Amino acid sequence: MKPFWNKLVAVALGMLGFASCAEIANIDDDPSKEDLCMYGEPSATYKVLGTVSDESGSPVEGIRVAIESKYGSYSQYDTLYTDSSGKYLFNRGERGLWPDKVFVVFEDIDGEENGGEFESAEATPELKKVKEGDGSWYIGMFEAQADVTLKKK
């Protein structure tokens, strides 16, 4: 009997959720002033990108790029590596929350293989809004760019 009640409650709650969006608040009875009632959650995309070079301006391949995305008191960590042109690109879509700060750490983990041994570096690039949202649940795109020059050890 318990599964029957669980199904009944699930159906009733689902109908209430959609029913709440069925009626549109229209105080003036003017259709041009209707407020849309939407069902969903906000989303945004963000990317962290840049170039890593040595002191002579040459790109450095194989540098580990550790990205810490801060969501208030919560953090998420991701790691990627620079390509042969010294570039890196991290791209992510988020639902509900998106970072308000980004910290990036650059580390040479392969020693002499990439043209020398380099000291680590850190950056805190500013997240900037580069694309507006669609006026609905999509808030827009945010971007942080950190270009660094690594010093040889």
Write up this protein.
Helices cover 14% and strands 42% of the residues. It has 153 residues and is mainly beta. Strands 1, 4, 7, 8 and 9 form a 5-stranded mixed β-sheet that branches. A 4-stranded antiparallel β-sheet has the order 3-2-5-6, with no helix packed on it. β2 (63-71) and β3 form a beta hairpin. The N and C termini lie far apart (71 Å).
At the fourth CATH level, what is the homologous superfamily?
Answer: Aromatic compound dioxygenase
Please count the beta strands (DSSP E, at least 2 residues each): 9
Radius of gyration: 24 Å
Span of the ends, CA to CA: 71 Å
User: What is the percentage of strand-forming residues?
Assistant: 35-45%
Please count the helical segments: 1
Q: What's the CATH C level?
A: Mainly Beta
Helix content: 10-25%
Average residue pLDDT? 83
State the order of secondary-structure elements, H for helix, E for strand: HEEEEEEEEE
Q: Number of domains in the coordinates?
A: 1
Which consecutive residue ranges, at least 5 long each, have pLDDT under 50?
22-28
Shape: elongated
CATH architecture: Sandwich
* Biggest sheet descriptor: 5 strands, mixed
Class of secondary structure makeup? mainly beta
Classify the fold: give the CATH topology.
Protocatechuate 3,4-Dioxygenase, subunit A
Topology:
Blueprint: H1 2-22, E1 43-54, E2 63-71, E3 74-81, E4 87-95, E5 101-108, E6 121-123, E7 128-132, E8 138-145, E9 148-150
Parallel strand pairs: 1-8, 1-9
Antiparallel strand pairs: 1-4, 2-3, 2-5, 5-6, 7-8
